[in-house]
Amino acid sequence: MLLYQKIKDDILNNRLPVGRPLRQTELSDRYGVSRIPIRDALLRLKADGWLVPHGKAGHIIPDLNWQEAEDIFLMRLDLEPRLFDYAFDKINKVNIECAAQLIEKLDNTQLTLLEKGELNWDFHKELYFPADRPVLYKTVQSLNQQYARYLGFQYGPMGYKQHSQNEHVELLRFIELNDKKSAMCLLNQHIKDAGQLLVTYLKSIK
């Protein structure tokens, strides 16, 4: 596992403190590497929305909150269906086969939260990348990377994983049937329902 992924995994599993400055020297000792790769990993995590600046050159892990979750899912709700619309007629047999394999991999109960998040994005990526709209794709990818911080709630206490998987299977079926209208409708509902449930859950525990 890359250093960047190790730190993400520790953030997802609450092994690094939320709201306390992350010191490069402490992280260097923790992961057994020099400060240079630590610095590079922290900068990448900040760019992906997993860290926020603190002080002159520091970083902290921000609290998970319903407002951020709502902003992210509303942006996803606007942008992802647009990207899927551009991609739909270009999705080929190889994309469908790869997406089906990723659904199967997501059923593995031994996966870490980080692996689940990465596989979830990989599934959607197979359906979006054919759009050949790099700027829009990059924005959607960034939103999904930020949203992955919240997967611990969805796959844990919210118990939403199986519902999400069922919708993945149904979405792929609509694509195979070339039923664009149903596929677009399902993707909208897929993003909206998960986002609204997450926001409601986060409000209940604040």
Describe the protein's architecture and organization.
The chain is an all-alpha fold and 206 residues long. The protein has helices at 3-12, 24-31, 35-47, 66-87, 93-106, 113-128, 134-147, 151-154, 161-176, 180-205, and strands spanning 52-54, 58-60. A hairpin with a 3-residue loop joins strand 1 and strand 2 (58-60).
Write the layout of secondary structure elements.
Elements (H helix, E strand, L loop, with lengths): L2 H10 L11 H8 L3 H13 L4 E3 L3 E3 L5 H22 L5 H14 L6 H16 L5 H14 L3 H4 L6 H16 L3 H26 L1
Antiparallel strand pairs: 1-2
**Number of DSSP strand runs:** 2
Helix proportion of residues, in percent?
A: 55-70%
Distance between the termini: 33 Å
Whole-angstrom Rg: 18 Å
In the sheet with the most strands, the strands line up as: 1-2
User: For the report, how would you describe the main beta sheet?
Assistant: 2 strands, antiparallel
Helix/strand order: HHHEEHHHHHHH
Mean pLDDT: 92
Structural shape: globular
Parts with pLDDT < 50 across at least 5 consecutive residues: none
- Derived from helix and strand composition plus strand pairing, the structural class reads mainly alpha
Q: What percent of residues are in strands?
A: under 5%
Give the count of helical stretches. Answer: 10
Provide tags for this entry.
mainly alpha, two-stranded antiparallel ribbon, 2 strands, globular
